[in-house]
């Protein structure tokens, strides 16, 4: 017997797995996702400039190990450090938005 695949909106799936926004489990998920996305974004920017982690670290005054930890979501990052990596290491500008 064949079963039909039910298409579910991503938001509905996340609600079912982690609870509604504002719950502790959901907030932990959202925080982890944001850190993951930041690491991926920095890694993609670095790769677009054909830089190694070591080269990026040298340009912004940190270590290859720290860059790796950020890219792999293994380390929290201070805003001042993020700004330095983006500005000095990648030649970009950091823009933040806050939403509710």
Annotation keywords:
single chain; 434 Repressor (Amino-terminal Domain); about 100 residues; 5 helices
Describe the structure.
- By secondary structure, the chain is an all-alpha fold.
- It has one domain (10-89): Orthogonal Bundle (434 Repressor (Amino-terminal Domain)), CATH 1.10.260.
- It is 61% helix and 0% strand.
- The chain has 5 helices and no strands.
- The chain has helices at residues 10-18, 24-48, 53-60, 64-71, 79-89.
- The longest helix has 25 residues, at 24-48.
Task: Tell me briefly what this model is.
The chain has 100 residues and is mainly alpha-helical. It has helices at 10-18, 24-48, 53-60, 64-71, 79-89.
Would you spell out the secondary-structure blueprint of this structure?
Blueprint: H1 10-18, H2 24-48, H3 53-60, H4 64-71, H5 79-89
* The top level CATH class name: Mainly Alpha
CATH superfamily: lambda repressor-like DNA-binding domains
Q: How many domains comprise the coordinates?
A: 1
Q: Multimeric state of these chains?
A: single chain
DSSP helical segment count: 5
CATH architecture: Orthogonal Bundle
Mean pLDDT: 90
Please describe the biggest sheet, giving its number of strands, its sense, and whether it closes into a barrel: none
What name does the CATH topology carry? 434 Repressor (Amino-terminal Domain)
Shape: elongated
Low-confidence stretches: none
Assign the structural class, choosing from mainly alpha, mainly beta, alpha/beta, alpha+beta, or little secondary structure.
mainly alpha
């Amino acid at each position: 017997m064949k079963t039909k695949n039910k298409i579910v909106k991503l938001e509905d799936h996340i609600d079912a797995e982690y609870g509604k926004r504002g719950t502790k489990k959901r907030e932990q998920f959202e925080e982890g996702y944001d850190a993951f996305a930041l690491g991926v974004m920095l890694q993609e920017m670095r790769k677009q400039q054909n830089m190694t982690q070591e080269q990026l670290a040298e340009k912004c005054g940190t270590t290859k190990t720290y860059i790796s930890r950020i890219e792999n979501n293994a380390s929290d990052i201070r805003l001042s450090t993020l700004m330095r990596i983006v500005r000095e290491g990648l030649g970009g500008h950091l823009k933040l938005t806050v939403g509710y």
